Structure formats: C-alpha cells, structure tokens
Amino acid sequence: MTKIKILHRYDILPPANSVPTTTLPLTFFDIPWLLFSPMQRLFFYDFPQSLESFTQTTLPLLVRSLSLCLRRFFPFASSLVLPLAPPQKPFILYSDSDSLSLTVADSAADFADLVSNEPYDATHDVCNRELHRDKLYGPFSKHYLLNGRSLRNRLRI
C-alpha cells in the first residue's frame, strides 16, 4: 500500500473585507443537482523540485492565489442553505467565516502509474478508505473501478 503524508491543511478565505455577506438564489438548472451527493476531486501534480522548495515557495503562492480568486468566486467557499419551511427556497449563503478547504499531500508512488490509463493492481491504489475514515475524501475514479453511475452510487456511502 502506498503511503500518503499530509503536508498541510488549509481553510482558505477571501482577503479580509473583500466579500460582504451575500445570498444567491439557486436557478432552475441548479435544483436537480440537489438530489446528488457532492463531489470532491483529487488532482495529481508532478513537482520536479524538492519538497522543501514546494512548501516554501510554490505552496504559499498557491494559497495566496486561491484566496484572491475567492474574491470573485466566493460561492466556492459558501454554504447551501435548505430552509425547512415550504415557501422558502434553497439558497447559497456566504458569510465571513466561510472558507474553502485545501489539503496538500505527498506520496512516494510512481506519478506515471497514477496518471496513466494502463491497468494496474488496485491494491496499490493511493486513495483508500483508510486514509480519512472520519473525513470526506475525494473520489478517485479510475476506469477500472467505476463508470459514472457507479461513481454516483459510491458517493452515497
């Protein structure tokens, strides 16, 4: 089993006082998606420099860039509110304490194997259920594991 080392966990907020408390109504096209489980994704990047270089130079710039992006794209850090009263409709609410979560991890796994389309032994999969039993995890959908419907059903577990 490939080991994963969590390097950092961030709760990224927009710059202070850049976004007021805001509500956004859901559109007709948003409503059907309420029936589906939320999706999280894993992104793999091959960083050819040292881990120290990444954590001291690239990672702070990435966090700062995400924070600045949230000025315009604050709904990514907001919450979905589902009112209990029937006449009220669901809406998106952004408040000052809302943030976007980012987890950065390192792995000794072969990057080429992780991102290839070739079949490989599923017991060496980087993302297993043991990683964060009590946390949400990003579904890692390889073609050998799931199709679209299977992925949707897997998210319900």
From TrEMBL:
Report the GO molecular function annotations: acyltransferase activity, transferring groups other than amino-acyl groups
Q: Which domain of life is it from?
A: Eukaryota
Question: Which InterPro entries does its entry note?
Answer: CAT-like_dom_sf, Plant_metabolite_acyltrans
Key words of the record: Acyltransferase, Transferase
Q: Does the keyword Acyltransferase apply?
A: yes
Q: What is this protein called?
A: Uncharacterized protein
